[in-house]
Amino acid sequence: MAYCHIAHDCVVGDNCIFSNNSTLAGHVSVGNHVILAGMTAVHQFCTIGQHAFITGGSLVRKDVPPFVKGAREPMSYVGINSIGLRRRGFTSEKIREIQNIYRILYQKSFNNTQAARLIEAEMEATNERDEILQFIKNSKRGIMKGYFSN
């Protein structure tokens, strides 16, 4: 859409939607089916996982895992992108599986390493589970935090 900017050395996946004034700094990697709402700014070297949705006016300073919605300031996990996943043919069972993974990661009192170990040990191996775990492991900037109310 109008006035979007994709800087040098960025990699953008297929079927992404960048709304007005969305901006990627250099060396950003964006997965398939990502939606950036208007006036989203992504810091250099960040990675956004596939099927993620970032709300308008967001500042993305950390990596955004696949299948999630990111919002607020600072950027925080606010749920999974269930509407986008349904539109792309994910079953209700698969969406619940993804929700359960992110409940462990963001809604329990574990750090990322502890949560990843628990997810790997207790959840059935699936492509989505493995993709989420690999994303966390490969993150160089760290992943966005969960939302904590004051």
Give structural notes.
This protein is α/β, with parallel strands linked by helices and 150 residues long. It has helices at 82-87, 92-107, 112-122, 127-138; strands at residues 5-6, 11-12, 17-18, 23-24, 29-30, 35-36, 41-42, 47-48, 53-54, 59-60, 68-71, 76-80, 145-146. The protein has two domains: 5-82, UDP N-Acetylglucosamine Acyltransferase, domain 1 (3 Solenoid), CATH 2.160.10.10; 84-136, Up-down Bundle (Udp N-acetylglucosamine O-acyltransferase, Domain 2), CATH 1.20.1180. Helices cover 30% and strands 21% of the residues. The strands form three sheets. The chain has a six-stranded mixed beta sheet. The chain has a four-stranded parallel beta sheet with strand order 1-4-7-10, with no helix packed on it. The radius of gyration is 15 Å and the shape is globular. The termini are far apart.
Query: H/E order of the elements?
Result: EEEEEEEEEEEEHHHHE
- CATH architecture tag of the largest domain: 3 Solenoid
Span from first to last CA?
36 Å
Radius of gyration: 15 Å
User: Strand arrangement, largest sheet?
Assistant: 3-6-9-11-12-13
What share of residues is helical? 25-40%
Note the overall shape. globular
Number of separate structural domains: 2
CATH class descriptor name of the largest domain: Mainly Beta
Question: Given the helix and strand composition, which structural class is it?
Answer: alpha/beta
Mean pLDDT: 96
In CATH, the homologous superfamily of the largest domain goes by the name Hexapeptide repeat proteins
Oligomeric composition of the shown chains: single chain
Note the main sheet.
6 strands, mixed
Estimated share of beta-strand residues: 15-25%
How many strands?
A: 13
Q: Fill in the CATH topology of the largest domain.
A: UDP N-Acetylglucosamine Acyltransferase, domain 1
Helix count from the secondary structure assignment: 4
